[in-house]
Amino acid sequence: MVNHKTFKEKSIHGRYVTSEMLKMEWLGKSETSTIKTIGSSVQENGIISISLGTGKNKILMWSQMHGNESTTTKAVVDLVNYLRSGETIATSILENCSLLIIPILNPDGAKQYTRVNANKIDLNRDAKQLTQPESKILRNVFEEFRPDYCFNLHDQRTLFSAGKDAKPATVSFLAPASDQDRQVTPTREKAMKLIVAMNKMLQQLIPGQVGRYDDGFNDNCVGDTFQMLKVPTILFEAGHFPKDYEREKTREYIFYALIESINTIAASKVEEFKSVDYLEIPENQKLFYDVIVRHVGLVNSFFEPNENIGIRFKEVLRDNKLLFEPELIDSGKLEGYFGHEILDCSSEKAIEDLYSRKEILNLILSKKK
């Protein structure tokens, strides 16, 4: 297997990734790819595309349609480094595929670390009206490039589990529906088979941590629209890996998934996989908190002695730094739910840990009768 560390772009890391970071450090390295400005955002920030390869299989991918979803952007940067490397598989991919990559579709949202663009519009709900310049740019590229496959690259929150087990959905996929009945059309079936190929590989690295995203149909979503237009489209969702809030491990797994999918296309192996296996991937459930504090009443009598609380982190950008601020979401028995971290106040060690976590402790103590 390819060694991700060899191709990881060290100038880009963490959760806060902007177009300026790409321009300053990484884009200047291009020798075997074509970089082009394909338009401007609401705030007149340039949106770039990167073209690689000369093969007949055309693959269009775009990342950071939601500005605060940057993990796949990092993985795409690493992918481009790999494709420029001259390694055997990389060379084969470039001979058999033509890739058009938009690393950051929503540069205004990326800079502000928001899901929406500068007009406060969710670009992934603008596929029909095409009211925003960023939406029009993507659609124009789609129509001019005429891809054979589309990769729609996103992040998902830490609350998702892969099925009902206590395993996070570190990577999730979706072959979007193209109608209300969610029929398995030939186009959708191709997307399913490609996901099966990636899942088979990922199960060797993160067993039980691959999920299947909800396939409710919404023709305002870009993936559903492109599937309607008979182009196999795959939604990638970069999720949580234990203790990896900077999403550097998840970045690695998305990198491997991208290589596996593109190489499967390049080698004409898509039809070797069975679409029925797609449905064996467990559907995502919302069963995780970032922290569960058990027996919280032993610390604050506002709560019952055996009560548990569920905390999730809110991502806040301050002075160009991303902070994770705890928010109390639920309280009660929380049966059937899991925590990426468990603090049990009946344990002396957990109490010591809690008192070293001032923000969480203050959140608990702020509740008064």
Automatic annotation (TrEMBL):
Signal peptide: none annotated. InterPro entries: Peptidase_M14 (IPR000834). Residues 3-265 form the Peptidase M14 domain. Transmembrane segments: none annotated. It holds the Pfam family Peptidase_M14. The active site is at residue 237. GO terms for molecular function: metallocarboxypeptidase activity; zinc ion binding. One of its GO terms (biological process) is proteolysis. Belongs to the peptidase M14 family. This is Peptidase M14. It comes from Flagellimonas eckloniae.
